[in-house]
Amino acid sequence: MTDTANQPPENPSRRGFVSALGAGIAALIGGYPLIRALAEMPPASMDVSEEPWVLLVPAGEVETIAPGKPKRADLTRVVAERWRVREEKVALYVVRGEAEALTVFSSICTHAGCVVGFEAKENRFHCPCHDGYFGIDGRVLDGPPPRGLDPIPHRLTEAGLEVRFTRYRLDTAERIEL
Fold first, then answer.
1. Secondary structure of residue 23 in the 3-state scheme
2. Are 170 and 160 in contact (CB under 8 A)?
3. What pairing do the DSSP bridges indicate for beta strands 117-119 and 84-96?
4. Which residues pair with 88 in a beta bridge?
5. pLDDT averaged over the chain?
6. Which of 25, 36, 58, 138 could form a disulfide with 160 if both were Cys (CB 3.0 to 4.6 A apart)?
7. Strand (E) or helix (H) holding 16
């Protein structure tokens, strides 16, 4: 009978080392798509409001929106994030065009998600984070934003102007709904 307890451990062979190295490289290459997919996932939050359409501007106030003068309106929505539910306030801008048509824009800059404000003297929207500028029609005038302000789906009802709040992916030229 041979005594294996007193024998020194075998030196790893070159073949064993190369096999382990190959398996490690294969795991990295195979795991990359999974890591990439997880990084692209939307945030773990969702709108849990009862109704998808929410009243933003009551009927009596819709007529007071002057052409070319954006009206800021705050929307409160209920959001579930993992284990808690909270209320979130989101600022939107309602713009009446020259043809009396209404457009609703998100106040979230399409570049990095900062909140834009309206500069009445310059008649434009401004993002202070990276000096992005948007026209009254939402298009990019200057700066790093990859696309214009995101339009928010809206409709006129007897109650007033209703919106269906929508979030879009940031820093992409195309509008991708989250």
1. helix
2. no
3. unpaired
4. 77
5. 85
6. 58
7. helix 14-39
Q: Is 103 helix (H, G, I), strand (E, B) or coil?
A: strand
Q: Cα–Cα distance between 70 and 105 in angstroms, integer?
A: 10
Helices (H), strands (E): how many in the chain?
A: 2, 11
Instruction: Note whether 146 and 171 are within 8 A (CB).
Output: yes
Q: Can you give the pTM of this predicted structure?
A: 0.69
Gap between the Cα atoms of 165 and 111, Å rounded: 19
- pLDDT of 149: 96
Q: Report the distance separating Cα 88 and Cα 82, nearest Å.
A: 15
How many other β-carbons are positioned within 10 Å of the β-carbon of residue 175?
A: 13
pLDDT tens per residue, range 106-115: 999 999 999 9
CB 104 within 8 A of CB 56: yes
Q: Please tell me the distance from the alpha carbon of residue 154 to that of residue 101, in angstroms, as a whole number.
A: 11
The parts of the chain modelled with pLDDT lower than 50 are: 42, 48
Residue 50: alpha-carbon gap to chain centroid? 21
